[in-house]
Structures are given as C-alpha cells and as structure tokens.
Amino acid sequence: MKKILIFTISMILFTGSSKSENFNIIGYGAVRDQKSTDAIQKAIDACFNAGGGNVVVPAGRFITGTVELKSNVFLHLEPGSVLEASLDLNDYRSTFRRHGLIFCEDAENTGIIGAGTIDARGTQFYDTTQNHVYPEFDKNLIRQRQNYMPGGTFFTDGPYKRLRMPGMTIAFYHCTRVKLKDFKLLDTPIWAIRLAYCDDGEVSGLTVINNLMVPNSDGIHMTASRNIRISDCNISCGDDAIIVSGFCIDEEIPGYAHGIVDQAAHRYGNKSIYSGHIQVTNCRLQSRSAGIRVGYGQHPIKQCVFTNILIYGSNRGIGIFAHDGSDIEDLIFSDITIETRLHNGQWWGHGEPVHISCVSRFEG
Prior knowledge:
It is built from three helices and 27 strands. By secondary structure, it is mostly beta strands. The protein folds into two domains: 96 residues, 3 Solenoid (Pectate Lyase C-like); 242 residues. The protein has a 16-stranded parallel sheet that branches. A nine-stranded parallel sheet has the order 4-7-12-15-18-21-23-25-27. Strands 10-11 form a two-stranded antiparallel sheet. Strand 1, helix 2 and strand 2 form a beta-alpha-beta unit.
C-alpha cells in the first residue's frame, strides 16, 4: 500500500511541474524560417520570471541573433529543430565584447539540452578566396626568408581570410552549474563554446563540426573554470578542439591579480584563482592546431585528467604551453591515440604528437 501511494504522489508532482516548466518559442512569436530573436528572448525572460524551466525550440528552422540565457532556464532543442545564425552583424549584442548566438553571464543552473542543431554559418563571415596570414614572425629569420608563404599563393588547407564576424557562438561567463548536452553545433566563425570563470559544468554527447579552413574556430574552450566534466563528444574544428587555459579578461596585462576584482563583481562562477579539476573522457577530436591544449593565461592550472580519447588528422596531438607566470601541475593523459599530419598554410603546429613549451608571452 505504501509503494502505491508514493508512486501516485510522484506522478502528480511530475506531471504538474512539466506543464508549468515548458515555454515554447512559437507561443512568444517565433516564426519558422524567419528572424525570431525577440521571440526567443521573450520566452527566456518569461521562463526566468516564472522561476525557471525549459524554453522549447520545436522542429523547424528559426533565425536568430544574440539571445541571453538566465538562471534556471534551459534552452531545449527538440529533434529536427535548427537555430540558424543571422548574417546581419547588427543582430549581435555587445557588452564587454561582441557576442555570438547564445550568451549568459552571472547565472546558475542553466544550459542547452536536446537533440536539435545550432548552425552558426561561420564560413559566411570569411573570404574563401584568400588565406589569412598572421604577422607573428619575421620572415628573415626563416630559412626560406621572403619566399616563405609568398603573397598571391592560395594554400589549399587554409586558413581562410577573416572578415567582420559575430563573437563566440556559445559563451557562459561567471556561471555555476552549466549543462550542455546532446545537441549538434555547426560552422562557428570563432570559438564554438566558451566556459569562462565557470564552476561545475557538464558537457556530454555534443557534436561540434566546424569548417577546418576557418581559423580560431576552437571547440570547447575552458578559461579560468573548474569542476568541468566533458564526455562522449565528437569535435572537428580549425583550432584547438578542447582547451584548458588560465585566461582572465585582462589577459594581456602582465602580473594581473588573478581576477580578484571579477570575483567580487559576480555572484556565481569560479571563486578560486585556479583553473582546473577538469575531466575529459571518451571523445573524438580533430583540429588544425592541437586536439588537446593546456596552458596560456595567468590563472594557475591544476588537476586535469584526459582519458580514452582519439585525436586524428591534427597539426598537434597534445600541446602544453607554460607561457605565463602561473603554474601548471598535475596533468594526467592516458589511453589516448594520436595521429597527426602537416597542413599547408599558416596553422599552428608541425605534426608533433606531444608539444611542451615554456616561453614567456611578455618581455622579461
């Protein structure tokens, strides 16, 4: 008798909460195959004001610029749904930087879930007839001198030349308990996913497929974040696939004080000075740079575990870069298969399975 009573009560609670938790964007004015940014934001705001739940994107294509997620709100992409990026740069918000499609700052218990697709249309923001060349070196110091990568030559492995573009496609800043699960993310113009100064994140079952000719199209980039778990992801991109760095907002200022000011200004996110306590397992990675990169930035990095990973077709397998004054310690790599190759064009890496460097980014 007790078992029957408990089961009945739990069913009532579940069905009651599910009715109140879902906010379908169609009900807030979203129209398939049309720009629906305002409608999606209205659904998010309504969900937040009601105490949280799921903002549902149903099957169909919806065009959008920047929308801002909030605490206790999950964007739920139903099977067959596509959030497609607007090609109008005026549709992308700017605060401390230009944002991409989905932006969230100083929130808890939020994220993106479901078996739908986000198409960032990143290649549209590049000139595919020209290569992008970085002024990172003096040609006179190279054996070929001025004959190295001569002007007017198109390198078939890229990278494409940058034009103006939106910001990072999915970015969470100073957030706690972030969940990213099961969706497909395509063709981002720059970093696909950034978890910055976040604490407690779960990333699983994602497919991130970027144009391999697009530079700086990182996969999952964790900057000064901790307690992040990544599993069962397939990532192919034109820059590092999975990254742990210690970058702060003022990343180009030598001796920056580890984000203490930022900690006081936000309720949520990583309140320590450390980037780390990262677990990455059971992933398949391809990159025109490194499959896995650890380093850069002035927050110390520690206690990261990478296991059961396939890295293929990449300029580097694993890269560890101690280029700032902060420590990097306690890294474990196990059960990793690495296959590298050289690409023409100005990419990062030289086919090394493992690269470790200790060179200061700042003079002195």
